[in-house]
């Protein structure tokens, strides 16, 4: 740099260029950058060649206009500026910048001649959050736990805390949490084995988190003698300000982790248990690499607040996963695994669950043999989602099987099913239970192979499609009836002629209803698929389901196909 003597001063500057943790830049009297060290590039990501010879507004980031005015003022007055906040965006879409403290000093030579202005930039320790902790925790509430997905919530926690607290963060959860099962109040060896953990979240100041030995979803190795196991067993945090792999005996059993610690210069460690409502869900690990400041109690307190908030979201997500899995298992157990049409009809069924975020619905279908070789076909849809809807669906399915044994006309079957549904709802209300499901729709059809006719009744349900041997598809105009649970009017029975080879398609509204589209659009889509010339009913069912605009769909989809023999 012109004007600055070589000798010892030059040697000191060369040391600052490569070894200092303080970011340094010097502008001459013409406000042109003439010197910059490596630390500054590490902190704000601007390469040396993009900075040298350029003015502050062209060689800094953030509010560069104000920074250039500040450099000009220091150059003109000689009054230094200290502790000026310098913010660096962590990513283009990030809502939180990394903050540094910048000081500006005018430089002179031995003769008092002005040489320029030097900027010194330091990483701000998290003591700056002492007065802003409430705002940080509040912001975490808007960015962590945005969904009821365990893995996504863990990733949001990692993303939020880098580089706010640490340069590298991992979140590992027990297998029980990921599966929505009940975790333990304390985690330790179980039957001689360490419990299984999976990586659920990871974030780093380096793209792709190269520090991590495991990708999200992979099983994590937890050394028995490691500080991680110590935290999991005790349920208490561990603050390790100075991490020196040469003095950590437990790393002898974990050479891969030791290699990562050395490669990335991990020098400070903070491990926090993740627990909520009296149970331990996993562990969050915070590491510092490029930030030279060791973790302290202020860091621990802030991290504990953020992890505690995230833990509640994780436990809510776990509970939701458990309920969703229970409802899905219940629903699947109540649906027939295979349907048989006997000698009357060839039948095939398709069931496609709703999107996991919407929950499990109450769709069901059934094929019931009746006296005289006749066949009853049933498709229903309980309004609502979750365990309640699945349980109600199971009760209605069992009730309609009992009613089918009475060999009543379809309209009478639905009338009695309606009364049964109302009694179920009243029993739940009297029992003090919360009644989330208040109505259901159903179509009940009876096919007689002797007369090749089909008698059917609808309870607020979409009419079936009929495909004749010639290939024409129609949706008969039938009395819809009111949904089950209303109990006002009987359900009329209609009759359709089904010549040999005719196809009857019963379905729930999830197959034909689309957001922002008239139902006629969905009916035409299904009609085209039904006349597409598939070689078998199984292939035809696959083809019809394949026309759905979204997979998985926003609502459960059930399709029951039946063709007279």
Automatic annotation (TrEMBL):
Residue span, GAF domain: 95-324
Alphabetized SMART domains for the sequence: GAF, PP2C_SIG
Catalytic activity reported: O-phospho-L-seryl-[protein] + H2O = L-seryl-[protein] + phosphate
Record key words, sorted: ATP-binding, Hydrolase, Kinase, Magnesium, Manganese, Metal-binding, Nucleotide-binding, Phosphoprotein, Protein phosphatase, Transferase
Span of domain PPM-type phosphatase: 345-564
Alphabetized InterPro entries for the sequence: Bact_Sigma-Reg, GAF, GAF-like_dom_sf, PAS-like_dom_sf, PAS_4, PPM-type-like_dom_sf, PPM-type_phosphatase-like_dom
Entry's Gene Ontology molecular function annotations: ATP binding; kinase activity; metal ion binding; protein serine/threonine phosphatase activity
EC supergroup of this enzyme: hydrolase
Keyword Kinase: yes
EC number: 3.1.3.16
PANTHER family given in the database record: STAGE II SPORULATION PROTEIN E, STAGE II SPORULATION PROTEIN E-RELATED
Role played: Primarily acts as an independent SigF regulator that is sensitive to the osmosensory signal, mediating the cross talk of PknD with the SigF regulon. Possesses both phosphatase and kinase activities. The kinase domain functions as a classic anti-sigma factor-like kinase to phosphorylate the anti-anti-sigma factor domain at the canonical regulatory site, and the phosphatase domain antagonizes this activity.
Entry protein name: protein-serine/threonine phosphatase
């Amino acid at each position: 740099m012109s004007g600055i003597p070589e000798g010892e001063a030059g040697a000191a500057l060369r040391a600052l260029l490569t070894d200092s943790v303080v970011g340094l830049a010097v502008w001459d009297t013409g406000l042109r950058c003439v010197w910059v060290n490596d630390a500054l590039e590490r902190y704000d990501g601007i390469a040396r060649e993009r900075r040298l010879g350029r003015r502050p507004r062209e060689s800094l980031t953030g509010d560069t206009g104000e920074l250039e005015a500040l450099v000009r003022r220091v150059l003109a007055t000689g009054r230094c500026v200290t502790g000026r906040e310098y913010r660096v965006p962590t990513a283009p879409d990030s809502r939180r910048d990394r903050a540094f403290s910048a000081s500006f000093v005018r430089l002179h030579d031995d003769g008092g001649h002005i040489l320029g202005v030097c900027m010194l930039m330091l990483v701000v320790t998290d003591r700056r959050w002492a007065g802003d902790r409430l705002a940080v925790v509040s912001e975490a509430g808007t960015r962590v736990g945005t969904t009821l997905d365990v893995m996504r919530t863990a990733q949001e926690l990692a993303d939020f805390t880098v580089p706010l607290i640490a340069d590298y963060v991992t979140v590992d959860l027990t297998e029980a949490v990921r599966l929505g099962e009940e975790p333990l109040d304390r985690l330790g060896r179980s039957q001689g084995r360490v419990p299984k953990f999976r990586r659920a979240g990871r974030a780093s100041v380096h793209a792709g988190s190269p520090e991590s030995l495991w990708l999200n979803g992979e099983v994590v190795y937890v050394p028995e003698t490691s500080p991680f196991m110590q935290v999991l067993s005790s349920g208490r945090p561990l603050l390790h300000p100075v991490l020196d792999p040469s003095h950590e005996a437990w790393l002898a059993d974990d050479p891969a982790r030791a290699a990562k610690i050395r490669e990335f210069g991990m020098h400070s460690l903070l491990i926090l248990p993740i627990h909520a409502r009296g149970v331990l869900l996993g562990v969050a690990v915070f590491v510092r690499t490029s930030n030279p400041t060791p973790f302290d109690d202020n860091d621990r307190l802030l991290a504990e607040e953020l992890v505690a908030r995230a833990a509640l979201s994780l436990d809510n997500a776990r509970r939701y996963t458990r309920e969703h899995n229970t409802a899905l298992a219940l629903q699947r157990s109540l649906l027939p695994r295979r349907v048989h049409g006997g000698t009357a009809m060839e039948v095939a069924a398709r069931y496609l669950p709703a999107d996991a975020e919407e929950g499990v619905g109450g769709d069901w279908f059934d094929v019931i043999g009746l006296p005289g070789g006749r066949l009853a076909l049933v498709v229903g849809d309980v309004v609502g989602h979750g365990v309640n809807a699945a349980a109600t669906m199971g009760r209605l399915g069992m009730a309609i099987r009992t009613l089918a044994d009475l060999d009543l006309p379809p309209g009478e079957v639905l009338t009695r099913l309606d009364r049964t549904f109302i009694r179920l709802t009243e029993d739940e209300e009297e029992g003090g239970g919360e009644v989330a499901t208040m109505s259901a729709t159903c179509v009940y059809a009876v096919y007689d192979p002797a007369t090749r006719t089909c008698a059917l009744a609808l309870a607020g349900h979409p009419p079936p499609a009929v495909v004749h041997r010639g290939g024409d598809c129609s949706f008969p105009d039938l009395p819809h009836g009111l949904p089950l649970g209303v109990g006002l009017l009987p359900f009329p029975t209609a009759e359709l002629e089904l010549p040999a080879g005719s196809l009857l398609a019963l379905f729930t509204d999830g197959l034909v209803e689309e957001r922002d589209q008239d139902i006629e659009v969905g009916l035409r889509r299904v009609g085209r698929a039904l006349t597409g010339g598939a070689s078998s009913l199984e292939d035809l069912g696959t083809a019809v389901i394949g026309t759905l605009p979204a997979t998985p769909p926003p609502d459960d989809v059930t399709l029951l196909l039946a063709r007279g023999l």
